[in-house]
Structures are given as structure tokens and as C-alpha cells.
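Please think about what follows:
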Amino acid sequence: MPKTLTPNSRPGRQDTRQALIDAGTEIILEKGFHNTGIEQILKVVGVPKGSFYHYFKSKDDFGLSIIEHHAELLRRKLEQTLTNPAHTPLQRLRGYFQGARDSLKDCACRKGCLFGNLGQEMADQHETFRARIETIFTDWRNRFSACIREAQGQGEIPKRLDADMLAEFCLLAWEGAIMRAKVTKSAQPLDTFIHFIFNELFQSGEPGHPA
């Protein structure tokens, strides 16, 4: 999660751009992109307006910079978790979702997924935002798919199940569970997702044997 800043906790010059991104992320997660004002971000970071326009051409440019920053964080997390040789492929998948579930619970399920939130808000209004978020979701799904195939090769998931469809379903169901968790202010939808995926769907057949 990005570091929370408080008013007047002014960062050093080299940290200003990142501080603006961190503060903007926090506010956007709470209020949405359209309801987030530049002045509000500047107040949190404690820098003048000129500092904002030194790093970002516009509010849209700022929003896209936030997306790129968090896309890189997601990529690193997925690589770190889904390719870890210390665990089996199925353990990696479960560990990824369990870790994400714990992070969401830590913030009382209030903020949700940045990409899911922005996708719902901006997809019909800003083609550049929509297209970039779609590529992020596609990469996310493809990484799930690769790990699922590896799990199938090791007999952890039945080979009769289509890896690409499973990966797509996982992503769709996970984003839906996050939205439901935000509404209920409870991690129960996330727990339901994890239970069904790993105790029901992925075990719908005898591991290591045709199903």
C-alpha cells in the first residue's frame, strides 16, 4: 500500500513526484478520479501548485502516471509470488490471493482495487485510461494462466480444465469479490472466493489423473 502522508509532512525535492503519486492514489481510492482535486493533493503533500505541473502536464497525465506506477508494483508482486520456486504453483496462486486478501482486510475493505475502481469510473469516458487498464488486466490474467498451466503439469489442477478460461474466471471473480467486500465492509467475499477456487474448482477432478 502507498505510504500515507499528512498535511505539511513536506517531502524532499527528489521525493516530491512520488509523494504526489502516493497522496493522489490514496485520495482516488477513497473518492474516485473525478472527485479528486489537485489542490487537495497539494495540501496533503505540502507543496505549491508549481511543483505539480513541474512533474505532470495535466490531471490526466497525473492519473496515467499513477496507473503506470501501480502497474509496475503489480508486475513485481506477481513475478515475486507466482514464480517463486520455493512453493508449488498452486501454493503460489493461493499465496497471492491470500496476501491480497489480508492487505484489503487491513484497510477494512474500504479502498478496493485501483485498476478495478478506475476501470469502472473511466472506461466509458477516457479511451487512453481504458486501453491501458485493459492491457494491465490482460497481463495479470496471462500470468495466472502460466501458473495454472504449471500446476496442471505437476498434477495439482486437472488438465481437463482450460488454463486460459480458469485464469480469466479467477480475475473476473476476484474483482467481483473485491467490489462485494467494499460494499459489505467485510473480507467474507474474499474468503468465499479463495475457498471456492482452491477447495472446489481447482479440485474438481482427481489430481494427476484425467477428469
